[in-house]
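Whiteboard transcription, Tuesday session. T.W. wrote the structure tokens on the left side:
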């Protein structure tokens, strides 16, 4: 049984993430997905709650032919202890899939196998670019799975982001 681990903040979950997870699903038997910075929401960089992000992921991956677990993970302010913190919250996994240099380094130091998936149209498919589009009132819907569009509509996510970015 090989269980893969993938972590992101998913602010929001987008087609780049989806493409990586579909690739992981072809080689792993199960996937553990960590929703990082779970305690953060209602900020310009982290507009959505952990629960809202769980909804985005779970609905978008409904047809994935690989069992998966979505686990919110709060930040701890000690990188040296972070891998143990993650493992304390997740089902056991053997392979880490990440292109984030810090995540790769911390898991490698813990002796875990780390694979770095290729990026999918990274320039447009980035959380930062998508949040900027939402703020600017530009189209963003084509960059995320349809289920994410539904969740963000349901929670009035774009209006939330625009309000919290405003000045008093
Ligand atoms: P932000 O700009 O807010 O940091 P992000 O797009 O980098 O958002 P994260 O939630 O930080 O998204 O990323 C989670 C993981 O997904 C990271 O390992 C990141 O490298 C990876 N990732 C992000 N965008 C893509 C993409 N377009 N293709 C493949 N992997 C991606
Ligand atoms: Mg990022």
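and on the right, the sequence the group agreed on:
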């Amino acid at each position: 049984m090989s269980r893969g681990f993938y972590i992101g903040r998913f602010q929001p979950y987008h087609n780049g993430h989806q493409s990586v997870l579909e690739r992981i699903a072809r080689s792993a038997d199960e996937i553990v997905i960590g929703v990082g910075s779970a305690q953060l929401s209602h900020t310009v960089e982290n507009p959505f709650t952990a629960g809202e992000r769980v909804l985005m992921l779970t609905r978008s991956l409904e047809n994935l032919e690989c069992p998966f677990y979505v686990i919110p993970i709060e930040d701890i302010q000690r990188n040296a202890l972070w891998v143990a913190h993650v493992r304390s919250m997740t089902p056991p996994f053997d392979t880490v899939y990440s292109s984030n240099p810090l995540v790769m380094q911390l898991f490698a130091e813990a002796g875990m196998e780390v694979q770095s998936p290729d990026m999918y149209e990274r320039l447009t498919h980035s959380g930062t670019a998508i949040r900027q589009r939402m703020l600017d009132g530009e189209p963003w819907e084509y960059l995320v799975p349809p289920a994410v569009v539904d969740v963000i509509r349901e929670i009035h996510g774009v209006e939330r982001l625009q309000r919290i970015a405003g000045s008093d």
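Someone added at the bottom: The domain at 3-165 is CATH 3.40.50.620 (Rossmann fold).
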